[in-house]
Design goal:
By secondary structure, this protein is mainly α. It has one domain. It has four helices and no strands. The longest helix has 31 residues.
Length: 147
């Protein structure tokens, strides 16, 4: 940290910050798409899958907000894991079926959601990698110790 409490603006910090904002937006967008599928397309009538869509919507809102507000590596990685988990659930339902339901790639918004979730995961992993390490505190730095 520089004098006066200001941090130096570096390309790495810009990538980390931009990735957080874009990643949170993509996670929220995925939640919005799942809300639309649940509310308007009819996924709410599918046993187990319908309630899981609502869980996805709520978690997308919470994790998107967490990624945007609390800038830590673990929040970005949690958002990426959530996006990949949502994508894995969809692919599993297409390939093998999930809870007695088998989805198809031609279902409404399937490809769009897959792209959203893949992009969210990629952006958030890059953002986490670009996030500077936090310092443990001024008391632990050699300059602040008094002998």
């Amino acid at each position: 940290m520089r004098r006066g409490g200001r941090r130096k603006v570096t390309r790495r910090r810009v990538v980390a910050a931009g990735g957080r904002v874009v990643g949170a937006g993509l996670v929220w967008w995925s939640g919005d798409a799942h809300w639309h599928l649940w509310r308007d397309v009819g996924y709410r009538y599918i046993p187990i899958i319908g309630p899981l869509f609502v869980v996805q919507v709520v978690m997308a809102g919470v994790l998107g907000g967490l990624v945007l507000v609390w800038w830590r590596r673990w929040t970005a990685l949690s958002g990426a894991a959530f996006a990949l988990g949502t994508l894995a659930g969809f692919v599993t339902s297409v390939v093998h079926g999930l809870f007695g339901f088998r989805d198809v790639w031609s279902s409404p918004y399937a490809v769009e959601c897959a792209v959203l979730e893949g992009a969210a995961a990629l952006v958030l992993v890059v953002s986490a990698a670009a996030t500077p390490r936090r310092r443990r505190g001024a008391a632990s730095s050699p300059e602040s110790r008094r002998d």
